[in-house]
């Protein structure tokens, strides 16, 4: 498949754009593969891409029950960053951010990566100390972090009400290399690049059962028949516990809703990503001009891809506290995704109790930024039947062994992460 380039855009323009082909084939499933990846979101497609590009395993199928990228990958607020505190997490997310930095070249696809900076505001001494601690932990691991004072925040994002009567802004933790990427282009880019290496992307193919013999996976049952493979990787986000139940084991995951909102289009107003420290609210501006914002979880388990009004109300009121001018803005759309929440807020990229069955899951509300890193580590784990050092701590048994990765210190409450 010919690649995309400025030269091709020019030549196609001259011949009436008649030479473009679909970005990936509509593959029909074969009876067997070397590896099956379940879930055609960013994580599943990235897993397939890195299996092919890093490990030379190309006899791979990605099975997606609907259309690729229509799960959380196409529903998120697109923030990319690596400003985590625990070394197990910040090293993993930094690896992912470095992959993002070269992703467009690796995929030959424009994912509209925009490193516009991410600021987390703090409003009191305790929050300032926490931000300093997190920033120091990042810097100790070679990751960029800066502390902005109140004037620094005002200079970078003038629309924020730093003199807020109730929640005065003291400053913010800034990661300049953080930013946003275009969510659906990420799914399409990984699909395009995996397909170009021979991977079959099979849409409208729902996995309905697992074929397990002698404790080892042999394949899956689907709405398009049985498909055999000695290795299967799960990348199904909020549906993880449903799929592992098919394989006969439980996982510490609860499925909760997270909502996103988009406003009417505006002229350029906010050219970074900024997160409120005194309520659940964060915002960036899309290239189309709409403000893209979100907040915290809807606090009860659900598979509905719609959110609840109390959470919407909280998000809007927190937004107006941070930027009073938003009060004059019209909301355009809102929707929700189904999040795979873990008790400690950290993910799993690991082997499972069934031999040959692997998973990348538990991404909570932060898995978009992890997409390349998750696919890279999941592919490594599948190819070598062992974790890479970057995901060695992200196992299912960490709760049994008392080595939780409790990034936010919330304790064992799925909904509080
Ligand atoms: C509102 C919202 C805002 C967010 N904001 C951010 C953010 O700013 N930054 C960030 O880093 N993260 C964010 N996230 C989280 C992020 O979107 C997810 O963690 C990430 O996209 C998960 O990717 P995925 O590929 O694992 O899941 P998905 O994209 O959901 O893909 C899973 C796929 O599996 C398929 N599937 C499920 N069951 C089956 C089956 N039985 N057979 C076949 N296919 C199946 C589904 O159809 C789906 O397409 C946000 C999420 C939401 C909902």
UniProtKB/TrEMBL annotation:
Transmembrane segments annotated in the record for this chain: none
Chief location: cytoplasm
UniProt cross-references to Gene3D superfamilies, sorted A to Z: D-Amino Acid Oxidase, subunit A, domain 2, FAD/NAD(P)-binding domain
Top-level lineage group: Bacteria
Required cofactor(s): FMN; FAD
One BP term from GO: tetrahydrofolate metabolic process
Alphabetical list of NCBIfam families matching this protein: soxB
Protein name: Sarcosine oxidase subunit beta
Lineage start: Bacteria, Pseudomonadati, Pseudomonadota, Alphaproteobacteria, Acetobacterales
